[in-house]
């Protein structure tokens, strides 16, 4: 479920968060996915568990890489906006609207940076779940 980084709207934080929520679906459903695709001991011969595990592993890797790339891209874009606004603020210190816009962008940047921490937690959880199923793979 990888989305192209060019289609990501970094300007609207709510849209950014919704995209990440949708992209994290694979991580949210990892236990269900493993339980329904990896056979128990009695059905081992009927399904190629190793191939299924490899496919799931690859899907997780792609999802994690894609989300990290999107988050870092949006952080870079927003950092650039903040830098530009700071430079403008240096020139026009009396501009209240500019200060308001700068604060808004700084807040958005902090929220985006916190998404990297959330991403790390989500990824760790998924890898722990996947490794717990290793015996069946």
Automatic annotation (TrEMBL):
InterPro entries: MIX23
UniProt KW Coiled coil keyword: yes
One GO cellular component term noted in the UniProt record for this chain: mitochondrial intermembrane space
Keywords (A to Z) from UniProt: Coiled coil
Stretches assigned to coiled coil: 75-105
Keyword Coiled coil listed: yes
Leader peptide range in chain numbering: none
Family designation: Belongs to the MIX23 family.
Name of the protein described by the UniProt record: Protein MIX23
Gene name of the encoded protein: Ccdc58
């Amino acid at each position: 479920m990888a989305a192209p980084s060019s289609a990501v709207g970094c300007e609207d934080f709510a849209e950014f968060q919704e995209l990440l929520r949708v992209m994290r679906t694979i991580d949210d459903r990892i236990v269900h996915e493993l339980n329904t695709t990896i056979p128990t001991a009695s059905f081992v011969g009927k399904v190629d568990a190793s191939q299924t595990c490899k496919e799931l592993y690859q899907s997780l890797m792609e999802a994690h890489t894609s989300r990290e790339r999107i988050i870092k891209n949006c952080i870079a874009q927003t950092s650039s906006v903040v830098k530009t606004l700071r430079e403008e603020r240096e020139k026009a210190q009396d501009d209240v609207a500019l200060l308001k816009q700068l604060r808004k962008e700084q807040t958005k940047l902090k929220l985006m940076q916190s998404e990297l921490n959330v991403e790390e937690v989500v990824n760790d959880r998924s890898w722990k779940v996947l490794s717990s199923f290793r015996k069946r793979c």
